[in-house]
Amino acid sequence: MLTPTYTILYVADPHASARLYATLLDTQHVEASPTFVLFMLENGRILGLWAKSAAEPAADFHGSGSELAFRVGDDAEVDALHGKWRESGLRILQAPTRMDFGYTFTAADPDGHRLRVFARSE
Length: 122
Fold this sequence. Notes:
Layout: E1 6-11, H1 14-25, E2 31-33, E3 36-40, E4 46-51, E5 67-71, H2 75-87, E6 91-99, E7 102-108, E8 114-120
Parallel strand pairs: 1-4, 5-8
Antiparallel strand pairs: 2-3, 3-4, 6-7, 7-8
């Protein structure tokens, strides 16, 4: 079976985005070049931030075409992260709300990538 191991986000400024994601993910990047920054996450996933201007073939991206989802333990964690992210200046697209899969909110990074935090309904 073929399993995706990398998530690549096309961004305007990889180093500015890296500062944001280092704060959100509470980790530092492991590799950087002028057009690319790489994070190795504890769960084995890899997040790359690639300059839109350098991607080949050209990235035809117009915002909100991708979403990173972060599962947390309970509704209180959703509310706590919502407050923290809102206070940090992230644009909130969806206030905390109950949906069919659980309790969630959605923010956007400066390049328009959606960041969803959710606690599953059991």
